[in-house]
Amino acid sequence: MHIFISGPRHIGKSTLVRRTVGRLTDHFELKPGGFSTYPGLDNDLDIYMSPFCEIRKYDDPHRIAKRNLLKVVGLPEVFNTLGVSILHNSREYADLICMDELGFLENDALQFQTAVVECLNGNIPILGVIKEIYVPWYDKIKNHPKVELISITSENRNTLIDKIVQKIMVSLQKNI
Description:
The protein is an alpha/beta fold. It has helices spanning about 15-25, 75-95, 110-120, 140, 160-175; strands at about 1-5, 30-40, 45-50, 65, 70-75, 95-100, 125-130, 145-150. It has an eight-stranded mixed beta sheet with strand order 5-4-3-2-6-7-1-8, with helices on both faces. The protein is globular.
């Protein structure tokens, strides 16, 4: 079972992923893999990617998008190298693959999209985040038979963690 969280901007999707992984490590010797994306520091508006459990890096090899106040431009070559590498490596060691977050920046990163689908086809549980907007390649995720979409709202964001932890714990026990 793979769970993808969707909801409005700044509702707490990434926070929910981090809290869920934290709660799961209380129950299992969990080895999370996957990636997280994050904004630059201070006046750096660019967006970066690093392995989920590693220290965030703010350098060119980890920059997945350049943005300014007017527009954002994804860097498909970074998704297709760094992103694919993170996902392939995660499939070798991880008990849970985190994908925080997937969006429109990957529209032209076809190798990365393929790596995401390969993870979906596998048996390692995935906890991911997708934007609430329409992104054409999201259909590969939303329509996948192993994916459950969960919407986060201001009303349920504080109670979803128990539901998601329980679902992932069941998936982890099936994979032991």
